[in-house]
Amino acid sequence: MTTKTNISIWCAGFLLISLALIYGLIYPAFKGIKNAYAQILETKTATASLALQQAAMDDFKNKQEAYAPDLQKLEAAFVDPQNPVEFIKFLETLAADSGISADITIALPLKSEEARPNRVAFQVLAKGKFLDLLEFGEKLEHGQYLAGINQITLRQAGEDTAGKKIADGTVEATFLIEAIAK
């Protein structure tokens, strides 16, 4: 063999051994470094996110006294389903302010409404002038409670308690009112 062939064989062998070392040892090491860097970056990002959340929580705790009146107003907007006396008083006051007479009862939910356990239904049997009934409905929907009229039935009033025919434009209404419970 000639020296040139010998050198070529040694170069080819060295090249094969170098490639084997690169792919066998160096490439996995770089891949491990890349994966470790990705994990470090992910941990850093998660830490920064937690720090931002902690800062927001601390800020909220510092401003809690400022938020307290708004939170109390929000709490007062819900009806207590176990003791809805305050909401019934609210409805009675609205009826009196609107110039109508009203009988208020807790209504049983319709079958389609049974899937909504955070609601309380009330039935209001009201009698008064049509515009007064509309005023009652508007005041109710813009009132302090999260409540709305789910159904309304209107008809002209027939007779009063003495059996006399009423002809002064009095209207009887049945409101089905739904309020959001605590």
Write a brief structural summary:
The protein is of the alpha+beta class. Helix content is 54%, strand content 21%.
Topology:
Layout: H1 3-62, H2 64-76, H3 85-98, E1 101-106, E2 119-129, H4 130-141, E3 147-156, E4 170-180
Antiparallel strand pairs: 1-2, 2-4, 3-4
Describe the structure.
The chain starts with a helix and ends with a strand. 54% of the residues lie in helices and 21% in strands. It is α+β, with helices and mostly antiparallel strands and 182 residues long. It has helices at 3-62, 64-76, 85-98, 130-141; strands at 101-106, 119-129, 147-156, 170-180. Strands 1-2-4-3 form a 4-stranded antiparallel sheet. The longest helix is centred in the first third of the chain and has 60 residues, at 3-62. The model has no long low-confidence stretch (mean pLDDT 84).
Poorly predicted runs are none
For the biggest sheet, the summary is:
4 strands, antiparallel
Report the span from N to C terminus. 97 Å
Helix coverage percent of residues? 40-55%
Order of strands, main sheet, comes to 1-2-4-3
Radius of gyration: 38 Å
Average pLDDT for all residues: 84
Overall strand count: 4
Number of helices: 4
Shape: rod-shaped
What percentage of the residues does DSSP assign to strands (E)?
15-25%
User: What's the SSE pattern?
Assistant: HHHEEHEE
Structural class by helix and strand composition: alpha+beta
